[in-house]
Amino acid sequence: MSTIVGCIGAGNIVKAMLAGVEKSGVYFPNQIGIFDVSQKVCDDFREKGYTVFSSIDDLVKNARIVVVAVTPQVIDSIMQQIKNALSADTVFLSLAAGVSIKWYQEQLGKDCKVIRCMPTLTAQVGLGAFAVSRAETVSDDDYKAVDCFLSSCGIVEEIPESLMCEVVPINGSAPAYFYHMTRVILKEAVHMGFDEDTALRLFAQTMKGSAEMLLNSGMSAEMLEDKLRLKGGTTLAALDKMDELGFDRCLTEGIRACVSRCKELGNL
Questions:
Q1: Which one of 39, 128, 147, 240 is at 20 to 30 Å from 115 when CA atoms are compared?
Q2: Which has more pLDDT, 268 or 246?
Q3: pLDDT at 267
Q4: pLDDT of residue 226
Q5: What is the dihedral sign for C-alpha 208, 177, 134, 54?
Q6: Pair 78, 56: CB distance under 8 Å
Q7: pLDDT given at position 268
Q8: pTM greater than 0.90
Q9: Tens-digit pLDDT profile for residues 7-25
Q10: CATH code, residues 174-265
Q11: CB-count burial class (<10 Å; 0-12, 13-18, 19+) for 254
Q12: How many CB atoms lie within 10 A of CB 27?
C-alpha cells in the first residue's frame, strides 16, 4: 500500500481534518491519498505533496484506512467501485451522517471493517472532537490505527452506534451554533459602538476560556453558571430575559431537529 490513509472526497471537513493533521506532524502529506471529483481540489492537494489518485478503485487498493467523506445522497453511487477494490485489511472510516454500519455491510459484505465517525470542523486547528463507533469486525489494531489518525488533530470518544445520530448536535453541528451566536453578539456590539474585530477577540477569547474551564476546572456547567448568577446583577438580567423568550426551548428543539434530519439522511 502506498498510503496509510485515503480520502474519498476532500470537501470542507476533510480539508479541516488534514490541516490539523499537518500541524501535528504525525503524518507526511505523501502518506495520505486523495480522490475528489474536482480537478482543482486534486491539484491543490498535489501541490502540497499529497498522493492524488485518479479513481476510487486505485485509492482503495492503496490505502489501509479509507475515509468515506461523501454525502449520504452520493454514497450509494460509489459503493460498487469500493467493493471492486477493497481487501480484507481495508478499514473504512465513514463520515457520512446517518449511514449505518449495517448498511455498509449489506453493500460490501458482512466482514467489512467500518468505523462510523462524526467529525468537527475544529480539527482544522488541532481541536477536533471525534465521536466514533466501530463494527465488531474491526480489530484492536485496526482501531488503534484509526485512533492515531484522528487523535493527531483532536480528541476521540467511542460511543454506541445507537447514539451516532444523537451525537451530531453535540459535536458535529455544534460549532455552527457558536458561530451563529457570535454573529448575533457581534451585530449588537457594532450597534452599541464597538469595533467588530475588537468585539470578536473579546468574545472568542472568553468562549475559549469558558471551554477550558468546563474541561479542566472540576466544576460542572451548572456550578460555573451559578458563579455568575449574582442577584440583581447584569448576567442574571440577561439570563432571565433569555428564559422569558424561550432560549432553552429554542436550543432543545434545534437539537432534536438536527438528530431527526440525521436519521432521515440515513434512510438510503
A1: 39
A2: 246
A3: 86
A4: 96
A5: negative
A6: yes
A7: 67
A8: yes
A9: 999 999 999 999 999 999 9
A10: 1.10.3730.10
A11: middle
A12: 18
Please name which of 174, 167, 110 lies closest in space to residue 133, comparing C-alpha atoms: 167
**Residue 191: CB partners within 8 Å, gap ≥ 6?**
none
> Of the CATH numbers 3.40.50.720, 3.90.1150.10, 3.40.50.1110, 1.10.10.10, which one belongs to the domain with range 3-162?
3.40.50.720
137: Cβ–Cβ under 8 A, 6 or more apart, which residues?
Answer: 110, 111, 112, 113, 114
Percent of the chain whose pLDDT exceeds 70: 99
